[in-house]
Here is the input.
Amino acid sequence: MTPDLITRYAAPVPRYTSYPTAPHFHEGINAGVYHHWLEALPDDATLSLYAHVPYCDTLCWFCGCNTKITRQYEPVHSYLEALDAEMATIARYVARRATVRHIHWGGGSPTILSAADLSRLIDAMHRRFNLAEDLEFAVEIDPRGLDRARIDALAEAGLTRVSIGVQDFDAKVQAGINRIQTVNETRAVIDAFRDHGVASLNIDAIYGLPGQHEAELIYTLTEVVRMRPDRIALFGYAHVPWMKRHQAMIREADLPDVVERHNLAELAAAFLVDNGYARIGIDHFARPHDALAVAAREGRLRRNFQGYTVDRADALIGHRGRR
Ligand SMILES: C[S@@+](CC[C@H](N)C(=O)[O-])C[C@H]1O[C@@H](n2cnc3c(N)ncnc32)[C@H](O)[C@@H]1O
Ligand code: SF4
Here is the structure.
């Protein structure tokens, strides 16, 4: 694409996670409508459950997620109680008639939960819902400081896929986004999950970060590829300081312009394809054996709130997290 065309069509749009995108959500979908939808699910419905943990212990300046920084555990604890009450309400409507095939915990950082609470949360899901024997259970993991007890708790909970947040491995880029995370600690966490037999690995990275040029991006992706993830999500940095005020910590002058940003995205895609990854839609990559790549080849790919998916459940039930 020519620089001219890129500039002409470069307009900021909501981060593409779902359709309709988040700014189109409205109060018209109230409790009554939601109850009606839940009750209308057929008896043999298949479900996906999404639990959001909207807390982190440090703030990454690029972060566009629904999260709040806390150094105390009390808000997390109260939140878990509210989540449990929410699950009880939902279970009243879908009871044990529907089968849950997928569970995803995202955030924020689900790994802010204590090991005991990680176990409690999965136990509560088992108690309240009918989980499939071959359940797919994925959790978003911030590997920084993740201890053995939490890794063990997640593995024992039946985790089938870890999704590790990397973003960028270059030290200068990391300083510019307030996210210091070494290659070694990231690899150690991945190895620990693999030792536990967790078979599937996704890694999240971002292009378009401040001070990130071709060399930094390729360095990051080289290290990522060495970790042999089955899937890679490579998001374009969404800079929306009017919505996420902390992003003002990032100087706009340090961000790539639209042409460089486009070139970075294409360079990264070519690099990943050269390294054996199939390009899936706009921001995902997968090794050819991975279910995502197979579904893409066979025209069965779907998109839900967690990105591209092979999930064919009748309904994805989540909750909006903290207001
Ligand atoms: C909830 S976070 C992942 C889990 C964990 N909190 C972590 O950071 O490791 C989900 C992913 O969203 C992506 N993300 C967050 N803010 C973003 C932004 N402003 N633009 C693009 N991607 C972003 C990051 O790649 C991040 O790994
Ligand atoms: S990127 Fe992840 S760890 Fe960083 S603030 Fe956002 S949700 Fe928390």
User: Anything to note?
Assistant: Residues 74-94 form the longest helix (21 residues). The chain is about 35% helix and 20% strand.
